[in-house]
Design brief:
This protein folds into two domains: 70 residues, no CATH class; 168 residues, 6 Propeller (Neuraminidase). Helices cover 21% and strands 30% of the residues. Helix 2 crosses helix 4. It has 273 residues and is of the alpha+beta class. A hairpin with a 2-residue loop joins strand 4 and strand 5. It is built from six helices and 16 strands.
Length: 273
């Protein structure tokens, strides 16, 4: 019988649906949810590595995810301060260490559908700041709280812009040509972004010397071109290192079979002999 202590190697190989099925079996006692037992399995998921957690979290329904993580996180619904219906699925694909939080931790820039919203985490409200006439995403607040960098497709293709925050009353084009996924350096004086063209994906750098209410962006510099196998890359806060995920081609697909009531099966096999 498989218990938590022997499950770590298998969790690293399991698919999202297999992990969800396992947690469903282990977390419920008839019609009652067992948070302590489920918590032990969530701790194992964390221990098995980031790839396992991401694979699982991206493929599980919100209600189950809240149940599993409520021991560690307080989940509070936000009131949307806007007359139009919210698009997307709440807090979307932003939400990592790249700077979506304001310096005081009170506000978060996130994407709903084609829009960028600011969530006030203290007031538990959200408001639309950049509309959804065309796709706008990747909203990241500068570490000093003065600027919002984001990706916009208002010209028909993705480009990186910066606006003053919270005024948002002006904007400066940062990228020359295509650009997306902006990332602030810790001192708010440099932006990295990715530029994709026929020759590959390039990491671009733009210096900013903010003064007189302007970020004064410099000319983008091509730092390097990614290996074609790189599928995701996240710079460190000081822009001296880069964490990258590489696609592994031709890897063997692993499967796990979960056998229920296996002792009865052994007994039946013995009787047939």
């Amino acid at each position: 019988m498989l218990g938590p202590e022997g499950a770590l190697p298998l969790l690293a190989l399991a698919s999202a649906s297999q992990i969800a099925h396992l947690l469903d079996l282990e977390s419920w006692r008839r019609d009652r949810f067992d948070p302590l037992r489920s918590g032990a399995w969530v701790a194992l998921l964390v221990e098995s590595g980031e790839a396992t957690i991401r694979r699982f979290a991206r493929n599980i329904d919100d209600e189950t995810l809240i149940l599993l993580f409520r021991l560690w996180a307080k989940v509070t619904p936000l009131d949307i301060d806007h007359e139009e219906p919210t698009k997307g699925h709440g807090i979307g694909d932003m939400g990592d260490e790249r700077g979506f939080l304001s310096p005081d931790g009170a506000k978060a820039a996130v994407r709903h559908g084609l829009s960028i919203w600011i969530h006030d985490l203290k007031e538990k409200k959200a408001r639309l700041i950049l509309g959804d006439t065309f796709p706008q995403r990747d909203g990241v607040l500068s570490p000093d709280g003065r600027w919002l960098a984001y990706t916009s497709e208002e010209a028909g293709s993705p480009q990186v812009f910066v606006r003053p925050f919270p005024a948002l009353d002006r904007k400066w084009l940062i990228s020359t040509g295509l650009g997306d996924t902006p990332h602030w350096r810790a001192d708010s004086r440099e932006l990295w972004y990715q530029m994709r063209d026929a020759s590959g994906t390039h990491m671009m750098s733009v210096a900013l010397t903010a003064e007189a209410g302007s970020p004064n962006p410099g000319t983008p510099v091509n730092l390097f071109t990614f290996d074609p196998r790189i599928v995701v890359a996240v710079p460190s806060a000081d822009h001296t290192r880069l964490l990258a995920g590489r696609e592994v081609a031709g890897g063997e697909q692993k499967t796990i079979r979960l056998i229920l009531d296996w002792s009865a099966g052994l007994k039946a096999a013995g009787e047939r002999r």
